[in-house]
Predict the 3D structure of the following.
Amino acid sequence: MNRFENKVVLVTGAGSGIGKASALRMATEGGALFCVDLNGEALDATVEEISAAGGEATARVCDVGDEASVDACVAACVDRYGSLYALVNMAGILRFDDTEQLQTANWQKVIDINLTGTMLLCRAALPHLLLSKGSIVNAASTAALSGLPCGVAYSASKGGVLAMTRSIAVEYAKRGVRANCVCPGDIKTGMTNDVGFPDTMDWDLMPRIMSISGAKGPEVMAGVIAMLASEDGAHITGEDVRVDGGTLS
């Protein structure tokens, strides 16, 4: 299956987790991957893995929360490959805080990366996606659909991503650009494995975010993302696709 043959895909968060799995998946389907992350060492490892498998990939270190860094990143992608077919926004951070103890700086950091960063990438990529009649896939979360204990900042950021994606989908539908969200839940990644919890966390609330079938690896997300980004998703836009093993069902 070569759904991305002769197509350029920019993936943020490509150094690990869902971003890396998505980049690897779309490279195996013939795509030229422009891999973006803040962690240059992890990013180089992703590109090396793609190259070793015979794929095409370029690494670019970028702070998605910084406007100038994002604009330069998208420009570099188009300079390198001449076009852009799909934008996959998977960069993000997760933290848990008691709401009454949440520091404004920590709130703002989550919003800057998860929500504003996603907007900046979309804004910079849209002129090029209009030319290719391309696609956007953004990372929302089950936290955008249901309450997440001690996750006020993260939930707000992902709820914003969901609403923003729907707005982009409506605004650009007649102009040929699609925009969708994935809403992962209980996916095993470095971000979820390394997150800390406040001492007062009520663990009786945590089954609300655990999947019925057990946590899965990021590769289960990569298949869904590749479908949405490709022509297989040609009549899907403004959608949020929940991938959570039945948690919210």
Notes: DSSP finds seven helices and seven strands in the chain. The mean pLDDT is 93. Helices lie at 17-28, 40-52, 67-81, 104-132, 152-172, 190-194, 219-229. The chain has one domain: 8-243.
